[in-house]
Amino acid sequence: MAVDIWGIGHCCQDNICVVEQYPPEDGSTHILEIDDSQGGGAAATAMVAASRLGARAGVIANLGDDPVGDRIFDGFLREGVQTELIRRIPGGRSSTSYVMVNPENGSRTKFPYRDQLPALRFTDEIRAALAGARILHLDGTQYENALRAARLAKELGITVSLDACSMQEDNEKNWELASLADILIANEKYPRRLTGKDSVEEALAVMAKLGPKVLASTAGSRGCWYVRDGCVKHLPAFEIRAVDTTGAGDTFHGAFLACWLTRPDPEYCLRFASAAAALKCLKRGGRAGIPDRAAAEAFLSRNGAVE
């Protein structure tokens, strides 16, 4: 099957631990609930969201040939995410992540294992797959993979989307990868750390000089800031009572891209992505609450969409 969006980045299996309260350092707390049934990883979950919202999505990755890798792989299959470019590494250890969720407000703290799998090999098969796609989505967690993939995508003339959530100590590397993005949507910390500016508005104004088609910064319940016609604007978040914010940003990215394929209007796509992320937060884990397209559009209709 042809793929519209390929994702390259972190793939893992999440272990969601709902705790009684956040413990202080050298303290303790009680675990109220554990859910280890859902996959995670920024680019991986974005592709699950894109698929559930109607896009043809796939993942390019290395996984170990271990039971954790089997669960991650099977999770993609269940969601209709294309897996033909996932390479299983003999003896490799697939990544897991532990997530502590505060039941009072749904906030989460993550403890992921570092991915020790080898770098991707950009074979002729991967090159051909990218050439037939419309978008390459990256989360930047494996910098060399992301940089090589972004350069290849630019060479092939396909749109590069970057979830700017992972940073290198060498800030020149961050600028280099960001400069290759056509759709650049960051978390709230990234723009200020990248530019050294005190506010997200100032930081986005500097980043706009890179010339992406879309530039935004998400801030959870405080909404998102984006650049339109040279001006930094704010889009409020939908008001919900969050159960778990795990995967909200990843869902935002996948939803934005799924919407962009059919309606490439930045403001509408940001609103659509915000709706999908809000709905995700109503259920535990990074993927269980990701809506389908009908549910996201119905939520927008009830809460007012940008026309």
Automatic annotation (TrEMBL):
Domain Carbohydrate kinase PfkB: 8-292
One GO MF term: kinase activity
Pfam families per the UniProt record, alphabetical: PfkB (PF00294)
InterPro entries xref list: Carboh/pur_kinase_PfkB_CS, Ketohexokinase-related, PfkB_dom, Ribo/fructo_kinase, Ribokinase-like
Keywords per UniProt: Kinase, Transferase
Superkingdom of this protein's organism: Bacteria
Family named by the database record: Belongs to the carbohydrate kinase PfkB family.
Protein's UniProt name: Ribokinase
